[in-house]
Amino acid sequence: MGEPHLVWCTYYGKSWHGRRTASGERHNMNDYVCAHLFLPFGTRIKLRNPKNGKEIIVKVNDRGPHSKKNKLDLSYGAARDLGFIRAGVFQLEMTVLGD
Q1: Which one, of 4, 3, 6, lies nearest residue 71 by Cα?
Q2: What is the pTM of this model?
Q3: pLDDT (0 to 100) of residue 1
């Protein structure tokens, strides 16, 4: 298990719902899934919002984001449940759990 560290995150808009991801899965905006540039598909990541203490576990099933600042693109449901929909971009505590 990795050590927790802060990363900048964004989320997929609702228009991505149903589209194919890089892993071949269809994107479900309510699932706890995310895009990461190089972690293997199926890798589980624990995310914690340091401002409200909410935690979830997401699964990598896509590639992205293609930004130097942002490290993860989350599903809408994951972002909603972590409490950062209004912000759009947010810093979360990330711990890689493995697969």
Answers
A1: 6
A2: 0.91
A3: 66
